[in-house]
Amino acid sequence: MGMMKTLTGTALAAAVLFAGVATAQEMKFFRIGTGGAGGTYFPIGGAIANAISNPPGSRECDKGGSCGVPGLVAIAQSTNASAHNVTAIQAGQMEAGLTGAATLYFAYHGEAKFKDNAKPDLRVIANLFPEDLHLVLPKGGKLNGIKDLKGKRVGIAQAGSGTQIAVELILEAHGLTRDDYDEAELNNSQSAERLADGQLDAYFYAAGTPVAAMIQLDNTKGMDLYSFTDEEITTGNKAVPYYIRSVIPSGTYPGVTHDTHTLAVSGILATSAKQDEQLIYDITKALWNKNTRKLLDNGHAKGKVITPDTALDGIAALNVPLHPGAEKFYKEAGLLK
Predict the structure, then answer these.
(1) Residue 16's pLDDT is what?
(2) Rounded to an integer, what distance in angstroms lies between the CA atom of residue 262 and that of residue 264?
(3) Least confident span in 12-26, 62-76, 90-104, 195-209
(4) Are 327 and 281 contacting, i.e. CB atoms less than 8 angstroms apart?
(5) By the 8 A CB rule, do 269 and 31 touch?
(6) pLDDT per residue over 53-68, tens digit each?
(7) How far does Cα 181 stand from its chain's mean position?
(8) Which domains are delineated in the chain?
């Protein structure tokens, strides 16, 4: 009897397993690395995950349901952002992730902090939004050009960060090495605090606008932003090709009442060369479906600037390949020759 029972149990388990196979095959998980909950990457990653997901049993797209990839369940995971995400994608611990173009460039080409640790499997799905380089000055502070930072106390972002590497290259292109200014390696909030209490004369930080720490600084002590000249932008772009021309509009920070001309590094959605071509094609198509617009427009402020027309901006300069699935979509959509 005992034997009989076990057999039946096994047969039953097998039947259940067999019934479950059909359903399980239709569902696929897709993990997207983002950033900290207080940053820009986390809400943007969540909107993208929603846009490309279409779990089994969802209403059809044309009936007001999800226009994502059938059977796909995408999950936005909070992480330590760019460097963490490119490492996890290469290691196969995540299927995709958001990263700044600088980190993507260094990781793929095995430069800077990835010198002995290149990530050759990285591939691009889309350029998303600009992370503007802010050169923050005290309220009423003036600079007669970048070279005017000579002899000043300047915040240059955290050691090893994409921002710091770029800032040093841009300053060097303008003839300034670390010997010419008193540098402080600080994060965004620390830099804002030091500027507010007079310990810094200026600081650099690249991030998607508006930046929380700067909103606070603007509201309390006040601040100004340095607007780069055309010549400075050209020089900066030559020194750091993945930093492209950008503008922070007047009123982004209420106390800054002029357009700020600057450079921006792109926030990019990346994946692995090992991901299936058809899957990434379907994901790219879902990302740029007109119904995705609603999700992007109603979330974080940066979602509004994520458009198919800018999906390939700055990608050629990075020299990191598009994923073949994404490339196929852009060619079909007439966005790539």
Answers:
(1) 47
(2) 7
(3) 12-26
(4) no
(5) no
(6) 999 888 888 887 788 9
(7) 30
(8) 27-129+267-332 (3.40.190.10), 132-265 (3.40.190.10)
Check if the beta carbon of residue 266 is closer than 8 Å to that of residue 44: no
pLDDT in tens, 71-84: 999 999 988 788 88
At 193, list the tokens.
């605090």
Name the β-bridge partners of 224. 137
> How far apart are alpha carbons 53 and 108 in whole angstroms?
28
Q: For position 38, what pLDDT does the model report? A: 60
| pLDDT tens digit sequence for 249-274 | 999 999 999 999 999 989 999 999 99
In degrees, rounded to 5, the angle at the alpha carbon of residue 293 between the alpha carbons of residues 132 and 48 is: 70
Longest alpha-carbon distance in the chain: 93
For the segment 271-300, the average pLDDT, to the nearest whole number, is: 94
pLDDT given for residue 37 in this prediction: 65
Length of the chain, in residues: 337
Q: What percent of the chain has pLDDT over 70?
A: 91
